[in-house]
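Hi R.,

Here are the chain sequences for the assembly we discussed:
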Amino acid sequence: MGFAMSDTHDVLFRSLADPTRRALFERLCREGEKTVGTLTAQAGISQPAVSKHLGILKQAGLVLDRHEGRQTHYSARPAALSPLAEWTRQMAGFWEARFDQLEDLLKRMDQ
Amino acid sequence: MTDTANETLSVVVERDIPHAPEKIWRALTQPHLIEEWLMKNDFQPRLGHRFSLRDEWGGVLDCEVLAVEPNRTLSYTWNFAHDDPAFDLRSVVTFTLTPKGAGTHLRMEQAGFGPEQKQAIGGARHGWQQFLAKLERVAERPDFPGETM
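And here is the predicted structure of the full complex:
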């Protein structure tokens, strides 16, 4: 059907399935680059836990890290969400085309 | 699936069509007409009826009628079974017809995920749609600090 979910989708969905990770990612999207320390201060969980979540987001390509001295800075990479948008676009395209055919059919049908 | 509808990814396609709901309903529910715009099928407008949609490439969708409200709502499952979870699709397609002027507003919503994804979103507290929409808005802001989409 061409609606296949690839491994990329899996990794994306899994990494964003956790509310804490989603909150971290949203915050980086909203507020720009942050250090692990700054993110920990407001996350309500330990720094190792925050680092672990950031590691998973990084694997999914959702965040980038940058080392500066002893600090690690993280920033969001929303372009990594595009496979999700692509899946939606693909399905929408399928239905738009079918609706075109439906309209053609309706024109041919008797009232 | 309907219980978690706000936690699934869905696609909505809407169109104003210059034909009466009754006529569109026929095209949505009569097998020979469905075949003309969608796929070969053994559809029956009966709750719980199981049928197949067969595409021109040999793909077969397993479907079951979930809702039939003549001239208003038609809903059925749209499942594509595949051993590879990446290709396995479980979804629900719902057509809603609303009279609009001399014609009809036709809305199609397809909602669902493969089992892997369904499992993954099980713990999700927020709707995915909402989440993605919010992120899209953030990412579209001109002062967005990250890279562009």
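Chain A has five helices and three strands. Chain A touches chain B through 47 residues (CB under 8 Å).

Let me know if anything looks off.

Best,
T.
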